[in-house]
Amino acid sequence: MKLILKNTDSFKNERVDITKKEIPCLDSSWHYHAQYELLYISKSNGIRFVGDSVSQFHPGDLVLVGPYLPHLWRNDPSYYSEDDTNKVKTIILKFTKDFIGEGTFNLPEFHDLNLMLEQSKYGVSFGRDVSRMLHNDFISIIELTPAEQSVKLLDLLCRLSLTEDKKVLSSTDMRQYTTDNSERLDDVLKYISNNYANDISLQDVSDVACMTTNSFCRFFKKMTNKSYVQFLNEVRIRNASRLLAQDDLPVSDVCYKVGYNSITNFNKQFKQIMGVTPNNFRNSL
């Protein structure tokens, strides 16, 4: 997961850019950019990274990401197989804060919207009822003229700002204004993403970062606001919850499949992160 600054060419002359993607992964790198991004998942499943938040995503996932906040939506492994028949449909709305006019959102009548844009520096996730209500609006916005898209985007943002069914994702401000250390963090995150199911030690990831274990721990905590072990456990448990939801594998098999050697430790970590035991999680579905 490479942490990179994306330069969006379409924003040289445009303040709004709306696209539909139907290919897996969405992005190959943990990245950030200068624009706001409102992302709606109509089809597909996987793991979502926004700041220090690690979560599953499903159809109906609707998230607002603020400028310079690192993020990545990563589809489930099945989406990358040669015989894959899974469908992906994502609507991505990128915009600058002045897309409807300089200083517009500083006016009193846009107080709620301006507050939501301020919260987006942590990432804001909206509830399923909200995304279900707005589904047709997101699907149809692709077909509108540029002027109509700007008006519709303003309408969507106003409606989203008024709903109480939303939550902040990242526990800390992880906005990136510099690329310093980004390649080192990229190497570490990519290594964790590719090897979380294996027995990877603190020394292993420290070697990837070309740092001593003590220096690496300080570096990783500063960059992600989480310890290496905490972050690894979250990646493992989020993938475990995906397997429990989609497959009929016994809990013990899921435990070993995501990198745990002890079912007791797996159950402990799962309950700590998900709030319920693996069996109760599966039964609740």
Salient structural properties:
285 residues; alpha+beta; six-stranded antiparallel β-sheet; three-stranded antiparallel β-sheet; 10 helices; globular
List the helices and strands and how they pair.
Blueprint: E1 4-6, E2 16-21, E3 31-33, E4 36-43, E5 46-50, E6 53-57, E7 62-65, E8 71-75, E9 89-95, H1 111-119, E10 124-126, H2 128-140, H3 146-162, E11 166-168, H4 182-195, H5 202-208, H6 213-224, H7 228-246, H8 251-257, H9 263-274, H10 278-284
What does this protein look like?
With 285 residues, the protein is of the alpha+beta class. 41% of the residues lie in helices and 18% in strands. The chain has ten helices and eleven strands. It has helices at residues 111-119, 128-140, 146-162, 182-195, 202-208, 213-224, 228-246, 251-257, 263-274, 278-284, and strands at residues 4-6, 16-21, 31-33, 36-43, 46-50, 53-57, 62-65, 71-75, 89-95, 124-126, 166-168. The strands form three sheets. It has a six-stranded antiparallel β-sheet. Strands 6-5-8 form a three-stranded antiparallel β-sheet, covered by helices on one side. Strand 5 and strand 6 (53-57) form a beta hairpin.
